[in-house]
Structures are given as structure tokens and as C-alpha cells.
UniProtKB/TrEMBL annotation:
GO terms for molecular function: malic enzyme activity; NAD binding; oxidoreductase activity, acting on the CH-OH group of donors, NAD or NADP as acceptor. InterPro entries: Malic_NAD-bd, Malic_OxRdtase, NAD(P)-bd_dom_sf. This is Malic enzyme NAD-binding domain-containing protein. (S)-malate binds at residues 108, 153. It comes from the Eukaryota. The lineage of its organism: Eukaryota, Viridiplantae, Streptophyta, Embryophyta, Tracheophyta. Pfam families: Malic_M (PF03949). SMART domains: Malic_M (SM00919). Residues 4-222 form the Malic enzyme NAD-binding domain.
Length: 266
């Protein structure tokens, strides 16, 4: 999914399985084509030989070796191993080819996070971008500036994906539907916010975001001929909706619960 998203970005022209800008590691280090019993799910990302390869990287190379030699733009942690992005790894990440190196410590709970935002802004620098699966506080960088501890919480997408899948009548959720949801969420963030290191919109907009994401999922399901309709709205009606009409349609189907405060007598 990450590769598919990257290939859709403006300025990316290379296509096909040969375009491999990902270096995947597991508990045994860097995965290459020399790995025995290579898992079919990761085989397309196994490093080998050719113009996209980095010299002197070998099967099982350590994380810090890979970061030092590759100088990646993004370090994505899905390991479930707390603290694996240690000081040595993060200092190596400071030499990234990107002016805004990104570190995503996605494992949770907090004790399993690959690093903390304090670690990142201390060792990678003020220009770093941080996101995590667990909640952290923003970091004071001095002079009134903050290093943002973005939490990549599924509340931004899961409700809209579920609602869009339901209202489209799709029998399964495709990669294209997930991609549409992610691109819709990304559209909420301005260039100025990104320059500040902010990756996600305010939670105060969550209902509007859910309606927009749901509509994007519906339209993607229609485009992929997966929509079978829901209740009295068939696939033809869904297909004839404009973007704004789809948003209105999804918004009308959302639940609006009314919460009553609990009152206790002392």
C-alpha cells in the first residue's frame, strides 16, 4: 500500500516491481534475495542487485547499518519492540537525504513504541517529523516552538471506511478504497501545517472528516464496480452522485447520539 501510494505521487514516473525504494528488516536484519525460505509477502521488497541498490549492504545487515548507508527519508517502526530506534539509529537518521526526516514509531502500547518524540527531536533535530501509534505530549523546542507528537490514530479513518463500505454495499474493502480514504484525510492538511510538522487535522473536525472519508470510499467502490447499493439507493444512484452529493448522502446516514450527563446525589 505504501508503494502504491508513492507511485501515485506527482513527480514519480518509474513504475513496475523493479522500482523498490523500501528496505525491509525483521528480527534477522535486512531482508535480501539471499534469505532462505523468503516469505512471499515480502519477496518483492527483498534487496538484490542493480542500480537501485546501495553498495555494501548484505543479508541480515543491522538497522543502524541500513540507516547509515541508505539515508532514508522515512523510518517506519512496526516492530513491537520498545526502544529499537535507539540513540545510534536516530543520530544516523539525522543524516537523511530529506530536509524533513520522518520517524514513525507505530507500535503500541506506549512501552512498545520504537522511540519517543523527545528522542527524535533530541537526536534527529528540530526539522524532524514524528508520528506514533501511542499518545505522547508535544515537545518544547525552545523559543516558543513545539515538536509535534502526532498520533496516527485510526479514529480518523476507520469510521469513514466502515460507513463508506456499508453505504456503498461493497462486499469487501479494496486497496483502492483504503487509498481513497487516506488521500481524503491527507487533503485536510495544508502545506503550512506540514512545514510545522503537523500531520493530522483537529479532532474537532472528526464528523466532517468521517463524512468526507466515507464519501471517498463510496466513490472508490463505484469506480471499481464494487458498489451494490444499500437500502433504497442502488449502484446507479451512487454512481450519478457528485462529490458534494456523496458527502451529503453519507452525512445524512451518520449517527448523532445525544449524551445525557449522569447525575449523582452525594
Amino acid at each position: 500500500m505504501a508503494k502504491q501510494a508513492m507511485l501515485r505521487m506527482p513527480g514519480i514516473h518509474r513504475t513496475g516491481e523493479g522500482h523498490n525504494q523500501f528496505w525491509v528488516l525483521d528480527k534477522d536484519g535486512l531482508i535480501t534475495k539471499a534469505r532462505k525460505d523468503l516469505d512471499s509477502a515480502v519477496a518483492r521488497f527483498a534487496r538484490g542487485f542493480g542500480p537501485d541498490e546501495v553498495p555494501d549492504l548484505y543479508e541480515g545487515a543491522s538497522l543502524v547499518e541500513v540507516v547509515k548507508k541508505v539515508k532514508p527519508h522515512v523510518l517506519l517502526g512496526l516492530s513491537g519492540v520498545g526502544g529499537i530506534f535507539n540513540e545510534e539509529v536516530l543520530k544516523a537518521m539525522k543524516e537523511s537525504d530529506s530536509p524533513r526526516p520522518a520517524v514513525f514509531a507505530m507500535s503500541n502500547p506506549t512501552t512498545k513504541a520504537e522511540c519517543t518524540p523527545d528522542d527524535v527531536f533530541k537526536h534527529v533535530g528540530d526539522k524532524a517529523i514524528f508520528a506514533s501509534g501511542s499518545p505522547f505530549s508535544n515537545v518544547s523546542l525552545g523559543n516558543g516552538k513545539s515538536g509535534y507528537a502526532n498520533q496516527a490514530n485510526n479514529m480518523y479513518l476507520f469510521p469513514g471506511i466502515g460507513l463508506g463500505a456499508l453505504l456503498s454495499g461493497a462486499r469487501h474493502v479494496s486497496d483502492g478504497m483504503l487509498q481513497a480514504a487516506a488521500e481524503c484525510l491527507a487533503s485536510y492538511i495544508t502545506d503550512d501545517e506540514i512545514r510545522k510538522g503537523i500531520l493530522f487535522p483537529s479532532v474537532s473536525s472528526i464528523r466532517h472528516i468521517t463524512a468526507r472519508v466515507g464519501a471517498a470510499v463510496v466513490r472508490a467502490a463505484v469506480a471499481e464496480d464494487l458498489a451494490e447499493g444499500c437500502c433504497d439507493v442502488g449502484p446507479r444512484e451512487l454512481g450519478s452522485m457528485s462529490e458534494s452529493e456523496a458527502v451529503d448522502y453519507v452525512a445524512r446516514k451518520m449517527w448523532y447520539p445525544i449524551y445525557s450527563p449522569l447525575v449523582s446525589d452525594k
